[in-house]
Design a protein that fits this description.
Elements (H helix, E strand, L loop, with lengths): L7 H10 L12 H8 L17 E3 L2 E2 L1 H6 L13 H14 L12 H7 L30 H13 L5 H9 L3 H15 L3 H4 L4 H10 L20 H10 L8 H4 L3 E5 L5 E5 L19 H8 L6 H12 L27 H14 L20 H5 L14 E3 L2 E3 L2 H9 L2 H16 L8 H13 L5 H8 L3 H4 L2
Antiparallel strand pairs: 1-2, 3-4, 5-6
Helix pairs in contact: 2-4, 6-8, 10-11, 13-14, 14-15, 18-19, 18-20, 19-20
The structure holds calcium ion (2 copies).
Length: 475
């Protein structure tokens, strides 16, 4: 199995776009280093800046890239290594923060914060006035409680208000009273099966993370080759997003969750489940579920797919799209001899391989040893593989931070900006209808920062904030 399920042509194109096929000089670590400096910039919310942020077409720089260049480790011989570049970028960004590289009148940092392009004079910060147009039904460009009431019932309860309900709501009169009523109704809807039941809205949010495949499902509605039960993954995910639970549990839980009943559907934590086989000391939420190990580790020695899927699913960082690259010096080491040191692979694998090492002892599919943590797994189960395979360490690196094992990996991931941003982005997309737009950025950033610091990662509390934003509540 190739290290990444990407057809060669796309890699070649990406390589060309990023200048990897030439000696110069776009840096795959640039976007991640940029976002570390500007974590609240619109270009860093649930995505990362494209190469066109700094380049016309790599290696040719646009006005912003050109303004940065002389401030990047001046005096150091070119080309800079990825590590030197990433280390020098923050100071260079600060050095030109108040300049106006593209001459459109808006300073660079202001453009970065407002979501326009600092290297393109035709891209200017939004005026801050939301679009015109008359709507007789609603107050356009202004938060409208009656609109929110209807929208909220539809989004969270799956129903439209009756004429009587709307009339009663309008009679509440005072907007504060109306908002309090909406909050109360939101709490009621968050208990509904439409929101939290089997195949409800929360399950839909989880689909791309879990990627169910019915033919190999075990348990309820088992497929023809029952290998693992992803209902457990949906149960932990839903549990982590409901009631007063910490959303980070989806990555860090050492317990499992059992679903029962309908209307209401209940989710209860439990120390063990017959369908789960990793011992409690080596569990990291859905990262080590039987389903994740079966479907993403499968038969591979070094589980790159599992690591990249978790990175994409829970941090919103897609390595195949060159997102979240934090190159580790001296990587990739290519312990499994897959040829990942080739120039067109190394840029991604310098991040992906150290991200994958902590999975080395988590076994996928192999009879009675399936879906378990096995110390010395590579030595035990892959004795005929290339000799260097057994040198694969369990220690790895995520987001530039060294970790000793997958549990530490999960903790660093769960506490990162990327996790909070990605979690709130999921709901922004579901409820507002799209990823946050530059003009919504201020509200979006306020929402994910409060989700983390004020609400202690409680999704339900964050949802009360979200439905109070203009992005949600202005028709
Ligand atoms: Ca400018
Ligand atoms: Ca501009």
């Amino acid at each position: 199995m190739p290290p990444l399920p990407e057809p060669p042509r796309r890699w070649w194109l990406l390589g060309l776009l990023l200048g990897l096929a030439t000696p110069a000089l776009a840096k795959p670590t640039g976007p991640a280093a940029f976002c570390a400096e500007y974590p609240t910039a619109p270009a860093c919310q649930g995505t990362q800046p494209a190469c066109t942020y700094c380049h016309v077409a790599p290696p040719q720089r646009n006005a912003y890239g050109a303004a940065l260049e002389p401030h990047l480790a001046p005096g150091k011989p070119r080309p800079l290594s990825d590590e030197d570049f990433a280390a020098a970028l923050p100071a260079a960004l600060r050095a030109i923060a108040t300049a106006d590289a593209d001459g459109d009148g808006a300073p660079n940092q202001f453009e970065v914060e407002q979501g326009s392009l600092p290297g393109d004079a035709t891209s200017v910060p939004p005026s801050g006035v939301c679009g015109g147009g008359e709507n007789p039904q609603f107050k356009v460009c202004q938060y409208d409680p009656r609109f929110v009431y209807r929208r909220m019932l539809s989004d969270f309860c799956g129903t439209s208000p009756t004429y009587v309900q709307v009339a009663t709501f309008v009679e509440l009169g005072n907007p504060d009273t109306q908002r309090a009523f909406i909050d109360q109704e939101l709490d009621r809807c968050l208990q509904s099966d439409f929101w939290r039941g089997k195949h409800g809205q929360l399950w839909k949010v989880a689909h791309p993370k879990i990627r169910p495949i019915g033919s190999i499902k075990s348990g309820e509605d088992a497929g023809q080759i029952p290998l693992a039960d992803y209902d457990d993954d949906y149960a932990l995910f839903t549990w982590s997003q409901t009631d007063d639970h910490d959303a980070r549990d989806v990555l860090t839980a050492t317990f499992h969750v059992k679903r029962a009943g309908t209307n209401p559907t209940t989710y209860t934590s439990t120390p063990s489940l017959p369908s789960q086989t990793v011992d409690a000391a080596h569990r990291a939420g859905n990262m080590t579920s039987a389903w994740t190990l079966t479907s993403f580790v499968m038969f591979t020695a070094l589980p790159r797919n599992a690591a990249s899927q978790m990175y994409r699913a829970y941090l919103g960082l897609d390595i195949a799209k060159q997102e979240g690259l934090h190159s580790v010096a001296s990587e990739p080491r290519d312990y499994d001899a897959k040829g990942v040191q080739a120039p067109q692979c190394a840029a991604c694998h310098a991040t992906l391989d150290p991200l994958s090492y902590p999975y080395r002892n988590y076994n996928g599919i192999s009879g009675v040893l399936s879906n378990r943590y096995l110390p010395n797994r590579l030595e035990l189960l892959f004795p005929n593989d290339v000799a260097t395979l057994k040198n694969t360490p369990e220690k790895g690196v995520i987001l530039g931070q060294p970790v000793n094992n997958l549990l530490e990996w999960a903790r660093v991931a769960a506490n990162s900006d990327a996790f909070a941003i990605s979690t709130v982005t999921d709901y922004w997309k579901l409820l507002v209808g799209h990823a946050p737009l530059p003009e919504e950025n201020e509200e979006f950033v306020r929402t994910w920062q409060a989700f983390r610091s004020t609400h202690g990662y409680r999704v339900q509390k964050m949802l009360h904030d979200l439905i109070r934003t203009e992005a949600y509540g202005a028709p």
